[in-house]
């Protein structure tokens, strides 16, 4: 382990508590209660659309270096967080197998130090609301996909944190890993306007992430529900979760993300690509 001992020492120094002693319960830590989540969701939408309305009468605000710093924080922070997760998950898979890591309740044992990582990831989603605030202040178009994804991912991470499903790490770690690349891209483009050749592949990676997420969610949810309700269907084993809500909300939101990102990919890279090719072809005809 490379980062875990450093993280543990820093956490103890600043909180007086060992990360393995952290327990998430509604009301015992900030932003842990459902009404706070609902309020944050509503506040995010209200602030973002209010800024967008106010900015109609003003020039865009230049936020080049603030935006760069913001994206660097999220890029580096995500890299550290996914590494901390992997330092727990990889040994677990090595010793017990992948099925154990997504289904056994011991995979969510707070004594492993994983509970605090889920909570930090959840807090990251609140900070990521600033992505949209920066766009609104710069008078950039707020796409439905962007606002929907940011608003509901905070809720998704809360549900996964509160629900205690063993498989949650898979969805979260893939998301964090994608964010390392994504926020590097945003940091780079905030100061260097030259486009990167792999931008299209970033969207492809995001779509692949959701497909993999759904495989794991469907497997874990199927085994969870069949066992819980004694349904006469074959099962691989038992998968743990504190409640039904985690499986249902995760499945619905990840499925909706997949549909929206595929739609974005088609409109951005397929339709626009065909239009650009048609314009180029038409221009060539006129010059002949």
TrEMBL record:
<feature type="transmembrane region" description="Helical">
    <location>
        <begin position="72"/>
        <end position="96"/>
    </location>
</feature>
<feature type="transmembrane region" description="Helical">
    <location>
        <begin position="246"/>
        <end position="266"/>
    </location>
</feature>
<keyword id="KW-0472">Membrane</keyword>
<dbReference type="GO" id="GO:0034626">
    <property type="term" value="P:fatty acid elongation, polyunsaturated fatty acid"/>
</dbReference>
<feature type="transmembrane region" description="Helical">
    <location>
        <begin position="167"/>
        <end position="186"/>
    </location>
</feature>
<dbReference type="GO" id="GO:0034625">
    <property type="term" value="P:fatty acid elongation, monounsaturated fatty acid"/>
</dbReference>
<dbReference type="Pfam" id="PF01151">
    <property type="entry name" value="ELO"/>
</dbReference>
<dbReference type="GO" id="GO:0005789">
    <property type="term" value="C:endoplasmic reticulum membrane"/>
</dbReference>
<protein>
    <recommendedName>
        <fullName>Elongation of fatty acids protein</fullName>
        <ecNumber>2.3.1.-</ecNumber>
    </recommendedName>
</protein>
<keyword id="KW-0808">Transferase</keyword>
<dbReference type="GO" id="GO:0009922">
    <property type="term" value="F:fatty acid elongase activity"/>
</dbReference>
<keyword id="KW-0812">Transmembrane</keyword>
<comment type="similarity">
    <text>Belongs to the ELO family.</text>
</comment>
<keyword id="KW-0275">Fatty acid biosynthesis</keyword>
<feature type="transmembrane region" description="Helical">
    <location>
        <begin position="33"/>
        <end position="51"/>
    </location>
</feature>
<keyword id="KW-0444">Lipid biosynthesis</keyword>
<dbReference type="GO" id="GO:0030148">
    <property type="term" value="P:sphingolipid biosynthetic process"/>
</dbReference>
<dbReference type="InterPro" id="IPR030457">
    <property type="entry name" value="ELO_CS"/>
</dbReference>
<dbReference type="GO" id="GO:0019367">
    <property type="term" value="P:fatty acid elongation, saturated fatty acid"/>
</dbReference>
<keyword id="KW-0443">Lipid metabolism</keyword>
<dbReference type="GO" id="GO:0042761">
    <property type="term" value="P:very long-chain fatty acid biosynthetic process"/>
</dbReference>
<keyword id="KW-1133">Transmembrane helix</keyword>
<feature type="transmembrane region" description="Helical">
    <location>
        <begin position="207"/>
        <end position="226"/>
    </location>
</feature>
<dbReference type="InterPro" id="IPR002076">
    <property type="entry name" value="ELO_fam"/>
</dbReference>
<keyword id="KW-0276">Fatty acid metabolism</keyword>
């Amino acid at each position: 382990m490379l980062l875990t001992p450093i993280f543990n020492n820093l956490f103890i120094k600043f909180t007086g508590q060992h990360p393995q002693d952290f327990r998430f319960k509604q009301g015992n830590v900030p932003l842990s209660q459902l009404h706070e989540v609902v309020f944050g969701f509503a506040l995010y939408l209200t602030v973002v659309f209010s800024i967008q309305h106010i900015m109609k009468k003003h020039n865009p605000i230049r936020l080049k270096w603030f935006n760069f710093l913001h994206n660097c924080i999220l890029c580096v922070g995500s890299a550290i967080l996914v590494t901390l997760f992997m330092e727990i998950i990889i040994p677990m898979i090595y010793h017990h197998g992948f099925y154990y890591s997504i289904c056994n309740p011991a995979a969510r044992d707070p004594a492993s130090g994983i509970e605090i990582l889920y909570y930090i990831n959840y807090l990251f989603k609140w900070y990521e609301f600033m992505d949209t605030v920066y766009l609104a202040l710069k008078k950039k178009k707020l796409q439905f996909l962007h606002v929907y994804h940011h608003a509901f991912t905070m809720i998704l991470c809360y549900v996964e944190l509160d629900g205690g499903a063993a498989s949650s790490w898979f969805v979260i770690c893939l998301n964090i890993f994608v964010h390392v690349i994504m926020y590097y891209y945003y940091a780079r483009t905030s100061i260097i306007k030259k486009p990167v050749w792999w931008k299209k592949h970033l969207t492809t990676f995001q779509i692949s992430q959701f497909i993999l997420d759904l495989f794991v969610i469907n497997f874990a949810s199927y085994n969870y529900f069949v066992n819980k309700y004694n349904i006469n269907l074959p099962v691989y084993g038992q998968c743990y979760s504190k409640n039904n809500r985690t499986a249902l909300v995760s499945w619905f939101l990840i499925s909706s993300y997949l549909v929206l990102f595929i739609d974005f990919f088609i409109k951005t890279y397929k339709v626009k690509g065909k239009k650009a090719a048609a314009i180029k072809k038409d221009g060539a005809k006129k010059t002949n």
